[in-house]
């Protein structure tokens, strides 16, 4: 049985979607309050300011997307290493305002939270890289430490590029880039294991 959302949870859900769609600057507390079905003044019983609300929903989005990313790597069974996460991103981006908010804020976030946002995105990429390395070591145990580090950096470059593609491009462009880059990386890994 689903429990009804509290007012706080409704505000956060609406705000996440609103900020993901319009960005911080173009978002309106009045519009968020109306969508929740409360007065703007009622928002202030839950959040001190627009900054406070954005900070709260960004932190929640970051945590949700970390869990999603971890799950992608844990069920990875794809032809290319790290592909499960990459292949799942477009549908997640379309269906989850938390991913859209997290990525858009990471590239074009509000100035007041830039330090925290950059740290969150860096931590996220670090964790992605760690999961990739676990897969890489299992799939290619003969690689040297330096080779592993190089492939990890290459994979993170792919991830960063694909995140940008999600925000600014089309699904077909994303898929073309994902397929090409992961194929090249896979061939490089295979070549390193036979030499």
UniProtKB/TrEMBL annotation:
PROSITE patterns, sorted: HTH_TETR_2
DNA-binding region: 28-47
Domain of life assignment: Bacteria
Presence of the UniProt keyword Signal in the record: no
Pfam family, one: TetR_N
Keywords, ordered alphabetically: DNA-binding, Transcription, Transcription regulation
Domain HTH tetR-type residues, every copy: 5-65
InterPro entries: Homeodomain-like_sf, HTH-type_TetR-like_transc_reg, HTH_TetR
Molecular function as annotated in GO: DNA-binding transcription factor activity; transcription cis-regulatory region binding
Xref: PANTHER family: HTH-TYPE TRANSCRIPTIONAL REGULATOR RUTR (PTHR30055), MYCOFACTOCIN BIOSYNTHESIS TRANSCRIPTIONAL REGULATOR MFTR-RELATED (PTHR30055:SF238)
Protein name per UniProt: HTH tetR-type domain-containing protein
Species assigned in the record: Acinetobacter rudis CIP 110305
């Amino acid at each position: 049985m689903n429990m009804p959302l509290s007012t706080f949870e409704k505000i956060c859900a609406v705000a996440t979607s609103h900020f993901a769609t319009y960005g911080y600057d173009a978002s309106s507390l009045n519009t968020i309050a109306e969508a929740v079905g409360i007065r703007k003044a009622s928002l202030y019983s839950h959040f001190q300011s627009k900054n406070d609300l954005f900070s709260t929903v960004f932190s929640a989005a970051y945590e949700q997307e970390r869990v999603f990313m971890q799950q992608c790597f844990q069920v990875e069974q794809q032809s290319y290493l790290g592909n499960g996460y990459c292949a799942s991103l477009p549908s997640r981006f379309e269906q989850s305002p938390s991913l859209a908010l997290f990525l858009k804020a990471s590239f074009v976030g509000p100035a007041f939270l830039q330090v925290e946002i950059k740290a969150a995105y860096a931590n996220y990429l670090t964790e992605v890289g760690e999961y990739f390395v676990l897969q890489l070591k299992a799939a290619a145990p003969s690689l040297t430490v330096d080779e592993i580090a190089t492939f990890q950096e290459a994979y993170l470059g792919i991830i960063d590029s694909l995140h940008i593609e999600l925000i600014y491009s089309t699904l077909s462009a994303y898929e073309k880039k994902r397929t090409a880059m992961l194929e090249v990386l896979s061939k490089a890994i295979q070549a390193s294991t036979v030499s």
